[in-house]
Structure formats: C-alpha cells, structure tokens
Amino acid sequence: MFPTVSFPVFIAQEKGFFEKNGLKAEIIRINSEPTTYQALISGDIDATSGAPTGLVQSNLQGVPVVSLGSWDNLVSYTVATREKIGDLSQLKREKIGINRLGGKSSLILRVMLEDAGLNTTKDVTLLQLGGSQERLAALMRGGIDAAPVDFAFEPKMKQLGFFLVTGKKLPS
Amino acid sequence: MNGPLTVKAASLQSNRPKWVRFVKSYLEATHYHDNQ
Fold it and tell me: Model-level pTM?
C-alpha cells in the first residue's frame, strides 16, 4: 500500500493526468527514506514523493535537491499500541517499530516521545522494521508493543483491536 | 510539510517545463473526486 502522502502521484498515474500532460511516469514503491534518496541522487529515479527528512539531509550533505511542493501539512501517523495506555510516557521500556533510524517515522516518534518526557535512546527500544504495513504486521505478531502507523490504516487497526494514541496537540 | 515532491536541483534547472507539467498533473490529482 502506498502511504497517504503519495496518493496524488498514484491518482495522477491511475486517472491519466500525467499522460494528459505529456508525461510517461512509472511509480515505484521504495520502502525506506534513505534508500529513496540514494536512488534519487544516483539517478535511478527522477523524483520522490514523501521522505521529508531526506530533503534536509541531502542538502546538508552537499547534494542540492529541491521540493516542488506538497499537498499535506499534517503528520500522517497514529501511534498504535497493543495495550491500552493513557499517554505516550507509558511506553517506557517498550519495543517500538519504526521504518529506519533517520527516517520520518523515527523522527516523528522521537518528537512525540520526548514531548511525553521519554528519552528515546534510553527509555525505549526502537526496532527498524520497514513501512507502516510491516510495522502493523509486527504489532499483530506481538513482536513489538507500539508503532507509528500511517493513518490510512486506522480502520484496520481499530478492527484488529489495537489502541490509538494521539500526540500532544499543536498550539493553535 | 509532509510528503514533498522532490527532484535534484540540476534536473529542475535543465528540464523545468517537464517538472511544471508534473506539478500540474499532481495538482489536478489533488482535486480529483470519485464522482468525476
């Protein structure tokens, strides 16, 4: 499944908008932000949709990449847990699935957990498992206690009996 | 900003018309509804 942030690209392909504008596109799902940016920089792909942390890191490393825009100014993750908890501080000493260290899911999770008073290097164990689909599968198997998962999976997570935890609200 | 469309700066400089058409397609997709 493609993450929600990539839906416009998927729709443009499926509904013929690329073709109408004289473009021939091939969409490839790459299940990791660092790998996505390696592919962009090496010329294996021409553009990416997603992976905001790679945009910053690439420029910091001296590889000029630019963003053409985005349709989404929200973080499209819900933290799903196997056990019901009142807030994210209760994830202390738990195993949490992320995509890869340095990627968006680990960055977002780190901010959320630090907001909840946890030290992400000492208080929790982060396991690099892949995309939302793989993290949800690990939750189902019981290999992890929690994971940030794309909110497109919310109905599925509720159906499977997982608990959804929100982060601290942004100031309005 | 989440999910940015990203390209190499050199590619944007050398092939701007292609990327303009790409963004146009992307924008059209953001306005798409099932009942279209």
Answer: 0.72
